[in-house]
Amino acid sequence: MRELSTKQKILRFMANNTVPLLFVVIIAFGVPLSGYSPTYLAGEVISRISRNTFLIVSLLIPILAGMGLNFGMTLGAMAGQIGLIFTTDWGIVGIPGILLAMIVSTPLSILLGWWCGKILNMAKGREMVTSYIIGFFMNGIYQLVVLYGMGPLIKIISPNLLLPRGYGIRNTVNLIGIRKSLDNFLMIRIGGVPIPVGTFLVIALLSVFILWFKKTKLGQDMRAVGQDMEVARAAGIRVEHTRIMSIIISTVLAGYGMIIYLHNIGTLNTYNSHMQIGMFSVAALLVGGATVASAKIRNVFLGVVLFHLMFIVSPMAGKRLIGQAQLGEYFRVFVSYGVITTSLVLYEVRKKRERGMSGLALAQDQEVTS
Amino acid sequence: MTKRQRTLLIRVGAIILILLFAVFLFHIGRQHTVLIDNNTVTRDGVELQALKLVEVQVGKKGEVLEMTPRIRDKAVVVGQRHTVKVVYTDASWNEHVHELSFRIPLMQNMVLISLPALMKNPEDVSFWLENFEGLAVAQSDAPQEEDVVFDELAGFDSF
Known about the structure:
The complex is a heterodimer.
Chain A: H1 6-16, H2 18-34, H3 38-57, H4 60-64, H5 73-90, H6 94-122, H7 127-149, E1 172-174, H8 181-184, E2 187-190, E3 193-196, H9 197-215, H10 217-227, H11 229-234, H12 239-265, E4 267-269, H13 277-287, H14 297-322, H15 325-369
Helix pairs in contact in A: 2-14, 3-9, 3-12, 3-14, 5-6, 5-7, 5-12, 6-7, 6-12, 10-12, 13-14, 13-15, 14-15
Chain B: H1 3-29, E1 31-38, E2 41-43, E3 46-48, E4 54-58, E5 64-67, E6 71-78, E7 81-89, E8 95-103, E9 110-114, H2 115-120, H3 125-128, E10 129-132
Parallel strand pairs in B: 1-9
Antiparallel strand pairs in B: 1-6, 2-3, 4-5, 4-7, 7-8, 9-10
C-alpha cells in the first residue's frame, strides 16, 4: 500500500475530525471573548461532565450494533423520571433514593427498550428517524400516564406532588432530598475547583463496563451485526435478538443517566426534562468526533468538554460581541442542530467516497487479472 | 437440572435479590420529620407544664435546639431508629439529662415528641412520642388550576 505524505496525513486527519476541529476553533474565539476565568470554566466543565457523561455513554452500544444514534434514549429518560417521581413521593432521600429510582426505572426501561427494539427491527436501515419518532410517540403516552394516571390509578401519597385538582404530577418536582448526594459523596477541591469523585467513579465504572462488554460474546455479536447483518446471520448470530438487546441496554443506561443528570440539577421538569435530552446527547457525542457507525469512550469525553465549553461561553461571548446574550443563546441552539446535520452529511459523503474508491480498486484489480 | 432451568433459577434469584435490596434501600433512605413540642399538655388527666428552657438534640449529629415554652420546632431524620437528647435545668438549678432512643414507623411521615411528657415519664416512649398526621390545609386564594407547561427547549440551559 502506498505511504501517505505528511501533508496527506494532515489532510486526512482534518477530514476525519472536521466537527471537533470546528468546535476547537469556535471555542478558541469564544473563551477569550467571554472573559470567564479559567477556574470558573474548569468548574463548570467538570460539573457538566459529571452531569451528562452517563447519558452520552448510553448511546455507544446501539452504534456498536450498527443501529446508529439512538434517539430513543428519551424512553429511558422517561423511565428514569418515573423512578424519581416515585422515590420522591415515598420520601427516600440521598444515595438510597438514587439507587431506588434506578431500580424502579429498570423494568420500565427494559420493557420500553424491548418494544423500541422490536419496532426498529421492522425499520432496518431507518433506525435513527424511527427511534426519533418513537420518542415523540412515547412522550404522549408518558404525558397521559403522568398527567391523568398518577393520582387516581397510580397512587401518589404526597399531596405536594399532585396538581391542585388532585390528580396529575405538578410541572416541577423538587428533588432536594437527593440533590447532589452522589456528587457530594467523596467531593474534593483542587485549586478551588470542586471535583465530584463519587460521580466520576460511577462514570469510570460504566466506561470500564462498556470496554469489557465489547469483548464479551454479546459485544462481539453486536460488532458483527453492526458490520454486516447478513454475514452475521450466516454465522449463526441471532441478529434481531442482538439488536433488541443493544437497544434495551442503551435504554436502561439512559434511564440511569437521566437520574444522575436530574440529581445534579435538583429539579425535575416533569413534562419537559426528557424532551430534548436525546438531541443534546447525540450532538455532544458527534462533537467528540463520533460518527453514526463508530463511537468510542474518548469521543464521549472530548464531546462533553467541547460541546459544553461552547454552551458555557457562547451567551457571554455573544453579549460582549454585540451586546446581546440572546444571540449566544440562539447560537448554541443553532449549533446543536447544525452539528448533527453536518455530521450526518459528512458521514454520508465519506461513505459514498469510500464506496467509490473501493469500486475503483476493484476495477483496477479486474483489469490486472484480465 | 437442565441449562434452561439453571438460567431461569439464576434470573429469578437475581430479581429476588434486587427486590430485597430495594426494600433495604427503602428502609435506610426513608425521610421523616420529628416535631419537638414544648407546649403544656394533658396526660391521663394531669396537666404537664411546658419547660422553661430546654436543649434538645435529635440524632448524634443533629442540631442542638434551644426551646422556650409554647415553641414547636422540627428535625428532619433519615431511617427509623433515632436518639433524642434532652437537657433541662429546673428552678433549683438541677440539670436533668435524658438520652433516649425511639423508633419511627416506616410509613409515618411525621412524629411529635412532647417535651413536658418526656420529662415526666421518659421510660415510656408511647407517653411522649405520637404519630402526627399534619394539619388540614387552610383554604387559600391560590388558584385551583395550574397550567401544565410543555416546552421543547426547557432544560436547555441546564444541559
